[in-house]
Amino acid sequence: MHQYFVYIMANVSGTLYTGMTGNLERRVDEHKQKLVPGFTARYNITRLVWFESTPDVKSAIAREKQIKGWLRAKKVALIESVNPQWRDLSEDGDI
Questions:
Q1: CATH superfamily label, 4-91
Q2: Are 48 and 6 in contact (CB under 8 A)?
Q3: Which residues are CB-contacts of 69 (< 8 A; sequence separation ≥ 6)?
Q4: How confident is the model at residue 94 (pLDDT cuts 50, 70, 90)?
Q5: In 3-state terms, what secondary structure has residue 49?
Q6: Which of 9, 60, 72, 83 would bridge with 4, disulfide CB 3.0–4.6 Å?
Q7: Contact (CB, 8 A) for 75 and 67
Q8: What angle do CA 13, 17, 23 make, to 5 degrees?
Q9: For the residues of 19-45, what is the DSSP string, one character each?
Q10: What is the pLDDT of residues 24-58, one digit of tens each?
Q11: Mean pLDDT estimate for the chain
Q12: pTM score, two decimals?
């Protein structure tokens, strides 16, 4: 069964990026190494601060769009509900 991930990454000053992928480990690594030019590379967004998974790609896309439509405060509340210290979850072996 395939898994799809919706995730939020941040930089040290708290700029947020929401994305969706079928391979979270690879995608986070791409962000960290700035392999994809754009927003995350420009703003040095390298810390995975929240993620969830689903086996349904349509659900993942819908959830990503939903979160992207939220105000920052709601995204921060989502992150802090599971990661109050804003740890980089990719460094803890949590993914």
A1: GIY-YIG endonuclease (3.40.1440.10)
A2: no
A3: none
A4: low
A5: strand
A6: 60
A7: yes
A8: 125
A9: EEES-HHHHHHHHHTT-S-SHHHHTT-
A10: 999 999 999 999 899 999 999 999 999 999 999 99
A11: 95
A12: 0.94
